[in-house]
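Sample entry follows:

_____
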Amino acid sequence: MASEEHTVVGIASELPVEEAETAVLVEDSKNFHRNSLPLAEDPEDEGPFAPDVFRSECWYEDGNIVLIAECVAFRVHRGLLAQHSTIFHDLFSVPQPCTDASELIEGCPVVHLSDTSDDVERLLRALYDGPSAFKYGERLSFSSIAPLLELAHKYNIEALRDDMVLRMRTVFCHQFSVFKSSAEFIYSPEGYTERILRSTALEIVPSRDAIRSVELIRLIGETMMLPMAFYLCTLLPAATLISGSKLPNGRMAYLSPGDLAHCMEARVVLALRAYKARERISLFRGTETCVSSNAHGCGPGIESVFGSPRATRDVDNVSTHALTDWGKRIKRMAWLCKSCRTGLVEENNACQRHVWEKLPEDLGLVVPGWNAAVETAT
């Protein structure tokens, strides 16, 4: 990722530093809404920034530093920033030259940030409000935590970064047992148009979040999370993988050429694995201890429910979702005898486990420890 520079006026000349979506917030705080008024009403008092810069309501009268992102200014406390961020701490520790009055806003030195104003608002809200900024115990959207994690990484805000990473690990997990116990795929509320991955802590909408997740995971260096992020990308149409996805802040997220190639190739492999998994389940003929009232046992009923993909030859609707969990459908099959239901659930788990073990390889990734971390599902 290209290094960025923040122009600092009155602090130092230049120092290099490295949408459900309101769910991340307890509620929109009035202290963080943008104010449409310029910094000063008297043109003679506006200073060099006021004609183009608007004051946010994150503007503390006792603040002693002004952050400017895009055209929005935030008057905050340098002590708070320095306490949470080693980057700001080091920045503020640099001895300061005498500052010309024209380089101040209401007597405060100015730091220009290259981040979007919306993302800076989210970050400041998290720092000022602390735990109350989040609905702990409730599911957050990936699009709401991604900007926080990116800026926490950029400015080395360790506690915030760690919290966001823990949330991500509940869905971008590397252990099969964790995947089975804490994460699940559901269909989008809008209909059977998209599968959403969620845990009790986080929700991922692939069309909006998958490509962004690869970018972010590579940024923070969490290699163990990459296979699930890549897997979500393989669920997207090829056109989306190539053209990228638009983020809530207006930026486009793209896969690198190498990652794009891996995902395109993996779509074929995973489609074949999904085909084989469904065929294996549809051909399950029941257990030796089957006590079905049907003379032919539970087997024919199982095939009629799942259908043999080989028999239907439905190649136009081949899915790349090789981790499909048929457990809920199996539970709804009330006519199954207890023995065959248990056997079919075990067959379903075995299909998923096999896909899981092969996932990094199928995606063209080298993830040390992935296979060693795989646990036998109970």
